[in-house]
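User: Here's a structure from my thesis project, written as structure tokens. My advisor, Dr. K., wants to see whether a designed sequence matches the one we expressed. Can you design one independently, without my sequence as a hint?
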């Protein structure tokens, strides 16, 4: 198998058929040596029904891995990578925001450039609101300064990987997965290819501002222990300041006999200190929570059903069960 195309799907009943048709058109003859690996991430609409129909009707190699519930896109990507059989594996969204024509470009590039191990598409012009742009820029600056890995800004998980990269990614056993970080962590030579994001073919985005914030925060936790160091530094700094303050109070009382005044000062100091303490405990708690998830060792996803089309290879007429 030359190419595996992983397509995570969550409530994409309106998109999957369109995606299939567009991909078949874009890949042309290459479809004979390509598998489309749809991961149904516990969709609650008719996505699985549509995928089953595609499996029955298609002359191409279509595989469907259906989860028992929604486990999230990260789990879907992991399932895709561990089931992919191709020499090259690509990840693409089902909603046609990422055009399948780029799959051909990425494949051609990797075939022509053996020195590169993966191609990652990035948005040259990001079509987002100003606030979202600002928040994302800030996130990349923070993660850049807090970790040793270099995450290319605007690079998505729309990628094509050689087998060696897929194997390296699969060798990471962690459950709290942050793909953008993992792609960067495994290294290898990556070529960044510009692409233009299209409008969604159907349905709606599963991300909102808070989900993105959570994802960003867990990304920082997964790849850096600097937040812990920062909270320790804050603790040390506040300790030093409080010693200074105490000295000032003692000296003032001894020399000028000033009574200890300042209820508001006391209040604000108390609030500041308990705020910093709670923040630090919160940060610590996040690491413990991730640790807890890792030690439980639960699988990242549960597969309920697996299907495969009895496709016929175009050139040979061979029929695979
Ligand atoms: N997706 C998924 N599981 C989820 C959320 C999303 O498999 O829990 C899939 C979704 O079906 C789509 C891709 O991940 O194919 C990207 O999701 P979406 O289009 O909502 O993200 P956006 O393009 O808005 O960043
Ligand atoms: Mg999308």
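Assistant: Designed independently from the structure alone:
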């Amino acid at each position: 198998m030359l190419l595996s195309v992983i397509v995570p799907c969550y409530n994409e009943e309106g998109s999957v058929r369109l995606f299939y048709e567009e991909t078949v058109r874009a890949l042309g003859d290459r479809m004979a040596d390509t598998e489309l690996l749809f991961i149904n991430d516990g969709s609650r609409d008719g996505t699985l029904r549509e995928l089953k129909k595609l499996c029955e009707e298609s002359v191409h190699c279509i595989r469907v891995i259906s989860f028992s519930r929604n486990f999230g896109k990260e789990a879907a990507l992991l399932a895709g990578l561990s089931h992919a059989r191709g020499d090259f594996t690509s990840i693409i969204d089902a909603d046609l925001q990422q055009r399948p024509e780029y799959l051909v470009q990425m494949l051609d590039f990797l075939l022509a450039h053996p020195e590169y191990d993966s191609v990652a598409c990035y948005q040259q012009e990001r079509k987002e609101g100003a606030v979202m742009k600002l928040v994302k820029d800030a996130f990349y600056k923070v993660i850049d300064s807090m970790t040793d890995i270099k995450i290319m800004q605007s690079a998505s998980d729309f990628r094509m990987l050689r087998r060696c990269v897929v194997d390296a990614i699969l060798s990471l056993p962690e459950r709290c997965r942050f793909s953008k970080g993992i792609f960067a962590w495994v290294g290898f030579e990556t070529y960044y290819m510009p692409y233009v994001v299209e409008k969604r073919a159907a349905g709606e985005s599963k991300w909102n501002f808070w989900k993105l914030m959570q994802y960003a925060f867990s990304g920082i936790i997964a790849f850096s222990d600097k937040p812990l160091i920062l909270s320790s530094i804050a603790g040390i700094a506040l300790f030093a300041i409080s010693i200074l303050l105490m000295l000032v109070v003692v000296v003032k009382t001894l020399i000028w006999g000033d009574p200890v005044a300042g209820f508001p000062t006391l209040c604000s100091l108390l609030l500041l200190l308990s705020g910093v303490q709670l923040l630090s405990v919160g940060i610590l708690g996040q690491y413990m929570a991730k640790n807890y998830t890792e030690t439980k060792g639960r699988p990242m996803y549960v597969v309920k059903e697996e299907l495969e089309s009895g496709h016929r290879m175009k050139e040979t007429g061979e029929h695979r069960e």
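When you compare it with your expressed construct, this may help: The radius of gyration is 26 Å.
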